[in-house]
Predict the 3D structure of the following.
Amino acid sequence: MLDDKSAKSHSFQVDLRGLVDLLSHHLYSSPRVYVRELLQNAVDAVTARRRIDPSAPTAIRIVVDQAGLRIDDPGIGLTEADVHRFLATIGRSSKRDDLEGARREFLGQFGIGLLACFTVAERIQVLTRSATDPEEPGVEWLAASDGTYSVRRLEPGERAEPGTTVRLTPRAGAGRWFAPDLVSGLARDFGSLLPYEVTVEADGRTTRTTDSPPVWDRAYSSAAARRSALMEYGERVLGFTALDVIEFDVELAGVRGAAYVLPQAANPAGSGRHRVYLKGMLLSDVTTGLLPDWAFFVRCVIDTDTLRPTASREGLYEDETLAAVREALGVRVRDWLTGLAAQEPGRLAAFLSVHSLGVKALARHDKDLFRIMLPYLAFETTDGRVTLAEFARKHPVVRVTSTVEEFRQIATIASAQGIGVVNGGYTYESELVSLLPEVVPGVTVEELGTDVVTAALDPVEGAAELAMAGFLATARSTLDPLGCDVILRAFFPASVSALHLDTREARNERTREETAAEADDLWAEILGALKSAEPRAQLVLNHRSPVVRRLAAIRDPALLVSAVEALYGQALLMTHRPLRPVDTALLNRAFDELLGWASQNVTELAEEDGQA
Ligand SMILES: Nc1ncnc2c1ncn2[C@@H]1O[C@H](COP(=O)(O)OP(=O)(O)OP(=O)(O)O)[C@@H](O)[C@H]1O
């Protein structure tokens, strides 16, 4: 109430139509939630009555007929005063005024749920009788969607038992929300885990829509029977056969339920949609934020009494409790994983064949897990696909490339020289390799540079190099304009005639040079200032290769240039990197020349044959 004596105080007016419009278009995702709100009120009313009379009946009935929908509950009911206070006052809830401890028992808290019914109904009739005082007469509250309502005392015989009946008269155009199958489907979807029996009656048939206690709260004859019941339940509600099921019983966090391991690899970005029930009432089947991001390989079905809903009741309210629950569930998933590693390597292997990416993502932040998973996580290496643990045993200095193409470029050569290299180019892998020294003592990790490879290749004796001096000089002058130096080494396998070694820095430098050449003066000057002294690419010719030795014997200078270009092109193709336009042009030219030379030779031979 305002204090200022000179001012007149007024009460807010509520435009009910506007409010309902707001709720239906901006708060609730669909009018279907009206069934949830009715069920919720009925359940809360039964819970409230059971607090004062533990033997009170609990069954909730929904009846669908020509007139619309009716829901009966044997709950706490309302006195006439309650009707004015709670039903007719938007935003007031009997459940919030209660003690904190009691509030935890109720589903509702906002005092707006009943309004959801106006998204489908033009009239709401509530017939109620309070269980708190047998002397209190029954009351009828009749509300219309234009915002008017009336209250009438019932005659003594009109309602003998405590409890409430809510009747909805459909709005024009909203008839489909009252179709019997839809109503029982919604009651089952939202309320299958509610603690009290709910039935839907329509067309002379009665369907029970509750299926409680939840599958995880039932007694089983054995652990195997429990597991198969949980698996079957997951398949029914989530629609897939899980690789495994991880049961949650996190008492502190007030969470019961299970996580189901997806049978296919999941996209980490589009994951984390879980089916969450709050005290048995479905919140949503696409709830996010329940598990840590890394746990994208599971979908959960849980029931909790600690988490709070947002006002739309379609998501979880982000608070400290949710953060604590997320952490507790994350620990549980992690424990399952480590337990699998310790006891069931076969199942772990099956899991990793689908979800190794998720585990790698997780291991980056969790050294214990990384240590546990080390013997199981396979990486692409110069020793083939092996685990890091196995690889580190053979190569105490673990060399890692930062891109897939760098690995391709040097893997064969490095392994032929006895250098062990891990391909760190895939998601999370170089990060994990760099953590290796922290979990495996004595191991060091080094980025693999081209210098490591060249240093491992045998130098060629002076005399042998001198014998090839002419060939090398032609090779250097041919490739210099392409930003590539030429050196001669002896290495295995002899089948590789030349190796193109390149670093990212060298590639960047080449791009800069090319851009500078094409740019106008100002740009050329700016780009010129950026010129770096980074190493250039290298073509390493293999002295052990018979092809190289034969080519070195060519005397025709033009043919020698083409041969060098062909060697360069072949080495470049081995790197699997996209070719620059200059390189493609060079390759075409070299092969044209060589073909021309070969066909000319064939013609000369044929002529010689003809003369003979
Ligand atoms: N079936 C019922 N039996 C007894 N009281 C009821 C019933 N339905 C509604 N009420 C009373 O009406 C009040 C308002 O109900 P409403 O559904 O609008 O909000 P709420 O359930 O309190 O909160 P929420 O908006 O979170 O659902 C309730 O707090 C309760 O006191």
